[in-house]
Specification:
This protein has 108 residues and is α+β, with helices and mostly antiparallel strands. Helices cover 29% and strands 44% of the residues. Strands 2-1-6-5-4-3 form a 6-stranded mixed beta sheet.
Length: 108
């Protein structure tokens, strides 16, 4: 991952995304986690699984981390979506090695 040191849960998030493993991704999120992406919020296991399937698995997203500082991962994302690859910011809230909050936005 380009000599970037990532917290274990973030490293696992990237690996599970790139492997298109929906179950491994879902297991990373806490029971009351939220995801904010594309102007919407997904909360709880059912909605987050829906987000995983629709936004990561179906388009075959592959992430290449470019930087990590504090709680913010910047990664190039490629897959079956218009305009790719694009850079995205992933801001993680992490408690006890589980994702409690994830906010995703394009990097301009």
């Amino acid at each position: 991952m380009n000599d970037i040191t990532l917290p274990t849960v973030v490293q696992t998030f990237v690996a599970a995304t790139n492997a298109h493993d929906a179950n491994a991704l879902a297991a990373l999120f806490g029971d009351e986690a939220t995801v904010r992406d594309d102007g919407k919020t997904w909360a709880g296991e059912t909605e987050i699984r829906e987000w995983i399937q629709g936004h990561l698995i179906a388009p075959g997203i592959v992430l290449t981390p470019t930087s990590f500082a504090g709680d913010r991962l910047v990664a190039s994302g490629d897959g079956d979506f218009p305009g790719g690859p694009l850079s995205f910011s992933f801001v993680f809230g992490i408690t006890d090695d589980r994702i409690t909050d994830l906010a995703i936005a394009p990097v301009c």
